[in-house]
Structure formats: structure tokens, C-alpha cells
Amino acid sequence: MLRKLFAGIFAAGFLLCHQPTAVAQERARIAWAAFSSSHIPLWVAQEKGLLKKHGIAPEVIFFSNGPTALQALVASELDIVLTSAPNVVNPRLAGMDTVMILSLIPTFTDHIVAVPTIPSTEQLKGKIGGVNRQGSISEMGLRLVLRRLGIDPEKDTKIVSAGGNPDRLAALSKGIVHYTTLSEPFVREAEKMGFRDLLDMASLSIPLHWNGLVTRESIIKARRPMVAKVARAITEAIYYLKTDKEGTKAIITKILKITDPEGLERTYKTYAAIVPEVPYPVSAGMKTLLDDMAPRNSKAAAADPKSFVDMSFVQELDSSGFIKQLYKR
Questions:
Q1: Same domain, 156 and 89
Q2: If we measure between CA atoms, which residue out of 209, 217, 216 comes closest to residue 289?
Q3: Which of 63, 72, 179, 289 is spaced 20 to 30 A from 85 at the CA atom?
Q4: Are 95 and 220 contained in the same domain?
Q5: Of 204, 230, 264, the domain-final residue
Q6: Residues 179 and 263 in one domain
Q7: Which are the contacts of 90, defined by CB distance < 8 A and separation ≥ 6?
Q8: Is the distance from CB of 276 to CB of 106 less than 8 angstroms?
Q9: Mean pLDDT by 10-residue block, N- to C-terminus, for the chain (329 residues)?
């Protein structure tokens, strides 16, 4: 009896000691920047325990804007940041080793929303526009789109910092700005308040990494398995986003505190459609920004767009069959 008892205790102890979730958890400091639904894959990975499932003990941190989060990454206070192309390009042009490893949002998601007295984008000339802050994707993206529309953002309009989506909507309602950029569900909220949705910026089909997983080459070199686990967890979160509508909407409600049914539906449809199943950070999403900066920045003009992305993590997930297995293809 004693031998059986000790054998049972030994077997139980062996199993406990060899559970992957007990020994394989690796700490990762992950930040998301700006209050936007473009971070849904990270919210899903956190709320559904996918980071832990793939061996990550996450510390998930919110920053009000991308440039500040990138400063923390460069200072080695973070391991990975969900942020946009400008926050890879600008530090790298300055000599840093920032690089994007997954693309979550490969084009624009914001809309240009204006006060009722502005009926079209042509009427934005002479008006004040609101963005998150200088150097953010909302600011650089708006300037790029305005130039595509024939509006000189330096001469034809004034662009001011107004904060995240909720703050920009508040600035619009108070008359501090005449127009701003907003993403869903805040576009829906603005329409309910009587503002005009002038332009869905995605309709211009401009390749630009609006959001993705960004780290440093030095972190990849030192902790590649950790980075690979985070990439795997976020890729599975994309699958959840695309296949569990109600579960995803519940997470959006929890994070954004918005329960309007139409707003939630529009938000879900926007991001379920735009987030790629196989999230390659293609160089075209960097080239758009570099080309736009080139006339004013000689380093951008000479830069190779491929140097700003690392395709290897998605290539590993793709070639291993991990993504096909998720979608059972």
C-alpha cells in the first residue's frame, strides 16, 4: 500500500512539474498605444488567455500615444509595442533598431469627421483639424491623406494635438477643432451627435501599417523564443476575432465601455474584415510613409523599406501549418 501511495504521489508530482503552463511561462512587457479598436487582437489575446496558453506571462501596459510607448521600448522598459509605421520608421531613421514583426492593420481605419457646416473634404481648407499628437499615426496619416486630396497640410489647414479618440470627439463637440480623425465605434458616436462622416480613409486603398507588433532587433536576438510566442498568441487571437463575433464584441464592450449595438456591429465588421489572417508586415506598408517623407527627409529617400520589417515570424507560423490548422484548411 505504501509503495502504491508513494508511486501515486511521484506520478502526480511528475505531471505537475511537467505541465507546460507551469514551467514555460516567460515574462513579456507588451504595450498598446492610443485608445483605438485597432488593438482588438491584443485585447482578445489577453482576455482569452492566449498569451498564457502560448507560454507568456504578460504585463500589458496602456500608453496614450505611440511615440511615448516607443520611447519606453527604446529605453528597454518594454519588449513589444502595438503601434504604427511612423513609430518604426522615425526611430530607425534616427539610428534605432526598431522593426515590425506582424501587421495587424495594413491600411487606414480612421474616418475624417467634421462639423455639420463642412459638407465635403474640399471645404477642409482654412479649418482646424484634430489628431492624437504630433508624430502619431493619426497626425502623419491625416497629412498624407490631405496631400492625396490636394490639400497642403502645411499651408491650407492647421493641425493640432487633441488626444485619443474620445478626446478628439470631445474637441470636435466643443468647437476646438472643425474636423478630426476617428475610428469605429467613435465614428458612430459622432454621427449620433450630428457630425458628418466625410471620408473613410480606407477607401483610398493606401498601404500603410496602421498597427502592428513592433520590437527591436536586439530583443529578437536576445529573446527570440519570447517574441515568437507573442507572435503566435496574437495570430491565434486574429483567428478568434474572425470566427467569434459575439465573444469579440463582448471584449470590445469591456475595454471601450461602449454598448451601442450599431456601433459595436460596425466596429466588429471593420476590424474583422481588415485584419489579415496571415499578418505579414509587407514592406509596401513602410514604403508609403517613406515615399511621403522623402521630399522633406533625405534619410527617408535613401532608406530600404524592407529593412523596417522582419517577415520571419509570420513565415514560421505560415510554413509550419499553424495558421492553416487554426482555420482547418
A1: no
A2: 209
A3: 179
A4: yes
A5: 204
A6: no
A7: 67, 135
A8: yes
A9: 38 42 76 90 97 97 89 95 94 96 94 96 96 86 93 95 93 97 93 96 92 98 98 98 97 90 93 96 96 93 97 98 92
